[in-house]
From TrEMBL:
The organism of origin for this protein: Massilia terrae
Domain called Response regulatory: residue spans: 3-119
Classification via Pfam families: Response_reg
Keyword entries, A-Z: DNA-binding, Phosphoprotein
Protein's UniProt name: Response regulator transcription factor
PROSITE patterns in alphabetical order: RESPONSE_REGULATORY
InterPro entries (UniProt xref): CheY-like_superfamily, NreC/VraR/RcsB-like_REC, Sig_transdc_resp-reg_C-effctor, Sig_transdc_resp-reg_receiver, Tscrpt_reg_LuxR_C, WalR-like
Domain of life: Bacteria
Length: 214
């Protein structure tokens, strides 16, 4: 029997994941938590083969969450559930200690397949992301943003999607002054002189970032 813990702040998503996993007779959900801190407080559920961690915002916050889960469940395979489809984020998640990455809209079969692989110590990425990672690894026309940190990618995404400096600073947990300093460094790395230049850069290399802010 493969034992699984779920981490998600949304109760509806937790219930949906439990329902999907219940279709596999060899999989048993043994615990759930609202976030990585709550998981640490819960203590030991016995042997847990796989932890599924849902993340919302890109940045250092969710990579820290992966590391916290890794510290609490060092022998578990960690699967990240996210709406991000980008080789940058996948690589950052893997480097932080994740065993694989899944889209929130993945099929039940993909979810169960990922759980079986992670429980066996086999990394999981779907076919589309695998292709993106291959292109990334090949290094063909690799953009400067390949060297950005998770936080820098988050700031880029927020700024080009229409967030103000104040809004972006609140989302990533920085002061307005710190956000402006990081924006300046980000522009220097990407050879940009304005947010308009950042938008042009994103249009060519990260078009999904240009989704208008809600």
């Amino acid at each position: 029997m493969i034992t699984v813990e779920l981490i998600d702040e949304d109760v509806l998503i937790l219930e949906g994941l439990k329902g999907y996993l219940s279709t596999a007779s060899e999989v048993l959900v043994v615990g759930e938590a609202r976030d990585s801190y709550a998981l640490a407080e819960q203590g030991d559920h016995g042997a847990v083969h796989v932890v599924i961690l849902e993340v919302n915002e890109a940045g250092d916050g969710w990579t820290d969450a992966i590391r916290r889960v890794r510290a609490v469940r060092p022998d578990s395979g960690i699967l990240v559930l996210s709406h991000f489809r980008n080789s940058d984020y996948a690589l950052i998640a893997i480097r932080a200690g994740a065993m694989g990455m899944l889209q929130k809209n993945c099929s039940v079969s993909d979810l169960v397949n990922a759980v079986f692989k992670a429980a066996s110590g086999i990394p999981y990425v779907d076919d589309a992301l695998c292709e993106l990672l291959f292109i990334h690894a090949a290094g063909a026309n690799s953009p400067p943003s390949d060297k950005l940190s998770g936080l820098e990618l988050a700031i880029l995404r927020l700024l080009v999607s229409g967030r103000t400096v104040v809004q972006a600073s609140e989302i990533v947990g920085l002061s307005v002054g710190q956000l402006r300093w990081r924006r300046t460094k980000l522009m220097q790395k990407l050879g940009a002189r304005s947010v308009g230049d950042l938008c042009d850069y994103a249009r060519h290399h990260h078009p999904a970032f240009l989704t208008p802010a809600a």
